[in-house]
Known about the structure:
The complex is a heterodimer. Chain A is of the alpha+beta class. Chain A is about 70% helix and about 10% strand. Chain A starts with a helix and ends with a helix. Chain B is about 35% helix and about 25% strand. Chain B is built from seven helices and ten strands. In chain B, helix 4 (about 110-125) packs across helix 5 and helix 5 runs parallel beside helix 6. The relative contact order of chain B is 0.20.
Amino acid sequence: xxxxxxxxxxxxxxxxxxxxxxxxxxxxxxxxxxxxxxxxxxxxxxxxxxxxxxxxxxxxxxxxxxxxxxxxxxxxxxxxxxxxxxxxxxxxxxxxxxxxxxxxxxxxxxxxxxxxxxxxxxxxxxxxxxxxxxxxxxxxxxxxxxxxxxxxxxxxxxxxxxxxxxxxxxxxxxxxxxxxxxxxxxxxxxxxxxxxxxxxxxxxxxxxxxxxxxxxxxxxxxxxxxxxxxxxxxxxxxxxxxxxxxxxxxxxxxxxxxxxxxxxxxxxxxxxxxxxxxxxxxxxxxxxxxxxxxxxxxxxx
Amino acid sequence: xxxxxxxxxxxxxxxxxxxxxxxxxxxxxxxxxxxxxxxxxxxxxxxxxxxxxxxxxxxxxxxxxxxxxxxxxxxxxxxxxxxxxxxxxxxxxxxxxxxxxxxxxxxxxxxxxxxxxxxxxxxxxxxxxxxxxxxxxxxxxxxxxxxxxxxxxxxxxxxxxxxxxxxxxxxxxxxxxxxxxxxxxxxxxxxxxxxxxxxxxxxxxxxxxxxxxxxxxxxxxxxxxxxxx
Lengths: 301, 229
């Protein structure tokens, strides 16, 4: 292989096709930026899931004096009922930890959470239910607990906090799919542009390639300059995508959201830096493979 | 060196075969004219030798290789054994004479030292010594064809295929090209030349193979262009 020869051919090709090459670089960069953002969003959502699911509990609310629910026909929960539930919970292998919250504690929590609300003045401790807060070893096994205690005398209701979070995660999940969809279309545009550029490039040098075939140059030698051309465009596109993603992360997350937002942990530079090489590698491979298959058809022996 | 065994070639959507049951053998070092009117199958014959086409029927052997069994990735190796010259020269207009010839060696990965040595040699051989830095556009048709021959011959192929090499040249230049091909033939290179040039064939008195509507109608050593033409 004569590297110098191949390199000069690549240079000629890139310059001859400058506008197309720029189009390829930009579309590769945009699609890869979206892909990277999608990947990071996924990391973020998973991290949030871990964070939240680690804290969610199943609440078993016990009957108060004035509750009219099905399980509360016998009035307020009795001591025996409370003890029976507690004993049963401690026997369940699924349960990791149980915590009993009295009316007084519930009232305290309520007051803490609604400090500025006019409601807080009108609520008394008696109106709030006492409850067992159950932490499960596997938060997805909520229904086992629910079926054991729901509708039982003395139990007002069984509530899974996971259920409250689910719509939120569903929303994030949909956002992810939307990002993947847009990315797919951008990727399609990028690949079509790469294919077209490779074709134009091969056409504009058909005289050279014709002679190369004639004098017995190997397919690799004929195709390599074209493939490298695409790969270089892909590399630049990947690098540009890395820049865009890092900039977006810096201004959007580090400087933007992260400042005002502390409901949950936002991802740091770690996952971002891990994503960037993927983008570059993917950009190079995508371009090289797309042009390889284009040329296969175009430069047949 | 070249052997055709009952070779037929039919192109898709063409009722008449371009070549029909052609068998012949060309020995090493021979000089063979391939004659026949347009559409007689000369070009198909040459394309089959280069494995640019595959025969519909029959077997072809070139430089000791059975082309039917030759896998695609070995075709470049075959073409290094077979130099090719065309009527329209097919030079690269943006490269000098030297670069045009060197290109043929660069693309098959020859080391630069070899290229520096053999390109001037072959340019001397074809009579273009001192014109290395000219562009093809500055040369006469005869000189351009000499560059093309230099490019085809620089890698010392065993076979040189010439498809109407004098078709675009005046008689004087044609004679010059024929002398050059004859000189190359004397180095032991087999030459297969398709032509319409009656004067040249009659003058050279080499083996003549005539095709007519895809059939081999004449194979004559020390022949002339034709009886009826």
